[in-house]
Design goal:
The complex is a heterodimer of chains A (282) and B (781). Chain A has 282 residues and is α+β, with helices and mostly antiparallel strands. Helices cover 32% and strands 28% of the residues of chain A. In chain B, helix 14 links the parallel strand 20 and strand 21. In chain B, helix 9 packs across helix 10 and helix 9 runs parallel beside helix 18. Classes of the chains: A alpha+beta (282), B alpha+beta (781).
Chain lengths: 282, 781
């Protein structure tokens, strides 16, 4: 477990990190290091330069303004899981973050590093897609934002450009009458999600006015399920089961623990259970 | 003085370990230390056309790159031997470094030594090996098929041995006249031991003296010294010192002698410098001997009353690519001999084929043969309960060896010295609230996706290895005694030198309790030294749950000898006859004259002063014993597991786990409970999660902790433990052994519980590990 030789640079500001990225071809940014360092130790990643952005306080923190929450990219999973702001405005994000790894991982791992790595078994991506969050990126030429649904492109592939740093995530706050839930079917070895189902349901006057379901782990990127059939219903168990059974994945991923077919099946079951939990919390 | 045997005094080992002050092999430093990285085959089977080491050797800081050619040039034996021989066992050579053929992924082909670990690792990437990949076979059943790729030319059909125990004809007759028969095809899944500390070695050769000190992760330093010197390095045994410093778990994996430690020894001899190697987790998974990996067809015959009349077992047991140290004994004498379980079975036949495969070698892993045997017997008993309509409790009870039948001679060689099986089962039923659970189960049957199941495992094991003459007659190339040198100091504190080397069990605590109890002194006055061939007289090591029963008995014997000698000294000082002296609570007393007594300290001081001393006695107060047990010991018990199965997803939740074990007298209840907890975690892990998976090309696809699921604390539940006590009748402490009981009993209990939950679906068996997808597919097929 000895990585190949690499240079280590620590950035003191986002601007310095961006310059270091420009100056060093094939350099890798490191936040909490919980995805990058294991890959380097196995020599699956051999970046010539590692740029440590872990101490950029400007990228840390959680706030709410104007019906939107903002989470800095270097905010740890532990801070997200324990956030009062998120508990009030976006509880499903906090719930999902609490499922990541163990306490040590949550204390080091960051939301930015997590989604930039884009592991299909990660807990955060389906939640961001469910919320309709936007991912904000900065480069020497300016800033831009990408819808979470477009950000995750393929297995371990995102829309982050080589000269960009992920700075923060914005997500609309969930309003009154909206319940949400994240249910995880955990891999017994890795602790990643074999399937992670993120659901939200809005109820007004006993009727569903909006619903969403996004399932992680089934495909290379989060899979959104069309659950619009729930709108106007009273969210009966049968209606929820029927809606969740719409989960479809063209090319489901599989491994020695869980085949693609099985993941799709569990996705439907967990989708159903997540929707029911969201309903009960609405 | 209160007794200290049977009390949960805290482990004296823990302050150093939990504050990080314990020194493990990888923590050790040495002047001029160099570092080795071993280059390993990425193929399961390939011919080596050539190896170009020049690019690696040219890297600045690289000290040596050695291959099989260098082993040959060194003029040493250069092999890794097998230490247990069966009749007609095929024993192909296992070279320290593969010369022309590699036979499993991870087989060593070269070693690089450099000034630091990073350089060595970089250089290892530059060793260019020209492989010609060959067809491989990783599966134990496929390896026996006609036309399967051959692992060794010497072993046609990949058969390493063909072994049987018991009589075939009476079993056939029993089946011919049986009222009920049940049969089962099962796999016992291959496991990777996963000690937290990977294997490591620091070898320091000194050409000026011709001596070598090897610090290494060993469960048995003297055994390692013998195998290392005799078969691998060809050094005189007295010139090699092996030290096992803190050892972070082994579960059997650190019994065996491996190529890697010998390779590092050779490197040190070549360079005349200390050389260290520590396995990465990937190397650990590829080279530590694996466990289990059986394919078995078995059947049980019963009469109309549900009494067992015959048992038939046919097993193919994987050996892997080479025969590891004790590998041939595990699926034979530690497996076939246990087939009678707790039951009076009049006819048993067990046939085992040892099979070479292109995989990591398989050898003893916690339980070693006994978990596999228990799994066969207890799965069949579950099915027998269904087939006879008696249910799991009554069918077992009806067949238990009766308490007045001991010693009980089984049909498979072992003679159980003692036992009383009914009370352990009764207690387990009481703890679990059996009748209430059955009514809860019934109420769920037609109601919802989550079904409850209750599974039993009434196990027996044979541990405390073992009478040397017996194991010798069965093929062991070693004795199975244990030694203890107990030295009383002039100030009456005591140092124990034991050959039973600890790797986490708490020997220092429990052995001090044995001495303190017998001598009537404070356990704090007893020091326990182990794990160093220069300090300890000799030893066979720690495995097979033998440390208390054999190592502890050796200590007890030595203490008894000291008391006898002390009586002679005291008699001289008290002007009494030694026959009239008693020893109690740390004092020698003249029987009937309580005022005429001397403390242990008075006697010990005089033993070393020898100023006023018997003429016919040597000074000093120490004694050495080599204790060779009269029989194995036979712990037993009944475990009950309760699970909830989510039939919609196949997920299994543990609800309850009750274990009633009879391990004989208990030295330290806390340590005994801890051993059970660990064993249960590993056995439940085997049942539900752990699986070493090879693909068809022989790649280990569960080679990392991302894919191989060892149980974590949040996967488990609080265990409910209790004990019955049937002391071992043939050792001085009445102890039996507990290190493996949890791993032996629990797989069958868990699988029986899941199958019980799924009975409405007509499911009678699912192979371990019971992953959710397997369960779901069974429910939906």
């Amino acid at each position: 477990m000895y990585p190949a030789q690499f240079d280590y640079r620590r950035a003191g500001s986002v601007d310095e990190a961006l310059s270091l990225l420009q100056e060093n071809e094939d350099a890798k940014l490191m936040a909490g290091g919980h995805s990058l360092i294991p890959m380097m130790k196995l020599r699956l990643a051999q970046p010539p330069v590692v740029i440590d952005i872990g101490r950029l306080n400007e990228l840390k923190g959680i706030s709410e303004a104007g019906g939107s929450v903002r989470v800095g990219s270097l905010t740890t999973h532990a801070d997200i899981a324990a956030s009062d702001v998120l508990a009030a405005h976006c509880p499903v994000l906090a719930e999902a973050a609490g499922h990541i790894g163990d306490a040590q991982v949550r204390n080091r791992g960051t939301i930015g590093g997590n989604i930039a790595h884009a592991d299909p078994g990660s807990d955060i991506p389906p939640v961001l897609v469910l919320l309709g969050a936007s991912v904000h990126l900065q480069s020497p030429s300016g800033t831009r934002s990408v819808a979470a649904g477009d950000f995750f492109q393929d297995l371990l592939m995102t829309d982050v450009g080589e000269d960009e740093i992920l700075t923060h995530v914005d997500a609309p706050a969930l309003g009154a009458g909206t319940g949400s839930a994240y249910l995880k079917f955990e891999h017994p070895a890795s602790g990643y999600a074999v399937v992670g189902a993120a659901a939200s349901v809005t109820v007004q006057g006993g009727r569903c006015t909006g619903a969403g379901l996004v399932v992680g782990g089934v495909s290379a990127t989060p899979t959104a399920v069309d659950v619009s059939s729930l709108v106007g219903t009273d969210l009966s168990d049968d209606a929820i089961a029927a809606a969740a059974s719409g989960l479809d994945a063209e090319d489901p991923i599989g491994d020695i623990f869980a085949s693609g077919d099985y993941r799709v099946h569990v996705g439907k079951v967990y989708g159903k259970r997540a929707l029911a939990a969201a309903r009960d919390r609405a | 003085m209160a007794r200290v045997l049977g009390t949960s005094i805290k482990r004296r080992e823990d302050p150093a370990l939990i504050t990080g002050r314990g020194k493990y092999t990888d923590d050790l430093k040495a002047e001029g230390l160099a570092h080795a990285v071993i280059v390993r085959s990425p193929y399961a089977h390939a011919r080596i056309r050539g190896i170009d080491t020049s690019a690696a050797a040219a890297l600045p800081g690289v000290l040596a790159v050695l291959t099989a050619r260098d082993v040959a040039a060194a003029g040493i034996p250069g092999v890794v031997p097998v230490g247990w021989l069966l009749p007609d066992l095929v024993t192909p050579a296992h070279p320290m470094i593969a010369a022309d053929t590699v036979r499993h992924v991870g087989d060593a082909v070269a070693v690089v030594v450099a000034e630091d670990r990073y350089l060595a690792r970089d250089a290892a990437d530059r060793v260019a090996v020209d492989y010609e990949p060959l067809d491989a076979v990783a599966d134990v059943v496929a390896a026996l098929e006609d036309g399967a790729p051959s692992v060794h030319e010497e072993a046609p059909g990949n058969v390493a041995f063909d072994w049987e125990i018991g009589e075939r004809e009476p079993v056939d007759a029993a089946f011919a006249s049986a009222a009920h028969t049940v049969e089962l095809d099962l796999r016992n899944n291959r496991l990777i031991p996963h000690a937290i500390e990977p294997r490591a070695v620091l070898a320091s050769y000194d050409s000026s003296t011709g001596e070598m000190t090897i610090h290494m992760t060993s469960q048995n330093p003297h055994v390692h010294r013998l195998l290392m010197t005799l078969a691998s390095l060809g050094m005189p045994e007295h010139k090699v010192r092996i030290v096992a410093p803190e050892v972070g778990g082994g579960f059997g994996s650190k019994i065996h002698h491996y190529a890697d430690e010998a390779i590092v020894g050779l490197c040190s001899m070549k360079l005349d410098r200390p050389v260290k190697w520590t396995a990465t987790r990937t190397e650990t998974n590829l080279t530590d001997a694996h466990g289990r990996d059986h394919s078995t067809r078995c059947a049980l015959a019963l009469d109309a009353d549900g009494r067992i009349t015959g048992l038939r077992v046919d097993t193919a047991a994987a050996m892997g690519a080479y025969l590891s140290t004790f590998a041939p004994a595990v699926p034979t004498y530690l497996y076939g001999t246990l087939m009678s379980g707790q039951y009076d079975i009049p006819a048993i036949h067990c046939h085992v084929t040892g099979v070479f495969t292109h995989t990591t070698p398989v050898d003893a892993y916690r339980g070693a043969g006994r978990p596999e045997a228990t799994y066969v017997v207890e799965r069949l008993m579950h099915l027998a309960g269904e087939a006879t309509g008696l249910g799991p409790v009554e069918v077992r009870r009806r067949n238990f060896v009766s308490p007045d039948a001991f010693p009980y001679q089984t049909q498979v060689a072992l003679a159980y010295d003692s036992g009383n099986y009914g009370p352990a089962m009764d207690r387990a039923l009481e703890m679990i609230g059996y009748e209430d659970l059955r009514s809860q189960q019934a109420s769920r049957r037609d109601n919802g996706a989550k079904q409850i199941g209750i599974g039993f495992s009434s196990y027996i094991e044979a541990c405390g290895l073992a009478p040397s003459a017996v194991v010798g007659s069965l093929g062991a190339q070693a004795g199975q005694w244990e030694s203890a040198d107990v030295r009383v100091h002039p100030t009456a504190s005591v140092t124990v030198y034991t050959g039973s080397s600890s790797h986490g069990q708490g020997h220092e605590t429990t052995f001090s309790q044995i001495v303190a109890d017998r001598l009537g002194i404070d356990p704090e006055a007893v020091e326990v030294i182990h794990g160093d061939t220069d300090l300890v007289q000799f030893g066979m090591g720690t495995y097979g749950s033998r440390s208390a029963a054999v190592g502890g008995s050796a200590i007890a014997r030595s203490v008894d000898k000291i008391i006898e000698k002390g009586k002679k000294i005291a008699a001289h000082l008290l002007e009494a006859s030694a026959e009239d002296l008693e020893y109690e609570d740390g004092s020698f007393r003249v029987a009937g004259s309580p005022d005429r007594s001397l403390g242990l300290g008075d006697v010990a001081l005089q033993a070393y002063l020898a100023h006023n001393y018997p003429d016919d006695l040597e000074p000093g107060l120490s004694a050495t014993s080599f204790y060779d047990p009269a029989n194995f010991t036979y712990p037993f018990g009944t475990h009950v597991c309760v699970v909830e199965v989510d039939t919609e997803t196949g997920s299994i939740e543990l609800l309850r786990y009750a274990a009633v074990d009879d391990v004989g007298n208990v030295i330290n209840p806390m340590i005994v409970d801890g051993q059970l907890h660990g064993g249960l975690a590993q056995g439940i892990g085997q049942a539900l999660w752990e699986n070493a998976v090879y693909d068809e090309s022989g790649q280990l696809v569960s080679g990392s902790l991302m894919d191989y699921a060892v149980p974590k604390i949040h996967n488990l539940i609080p265990f409910e433990l209790d004990r019955t006590t049937t002391p071992c009748p043939h050792n001085p402490l009445g102890v039996k052994g507990v290190g493996e009981a949890g791993a032996i009993a629990s797989p069958a209990a868990v699988v029986n519980a899941v199958v019980d939950a799924l009975a409405p679906f007509g499911i009678s068996h699912i192979d371990m590990p019971l992953t959710p997808e397997k369960v779901w597919r069974a429910v939906n097929s």
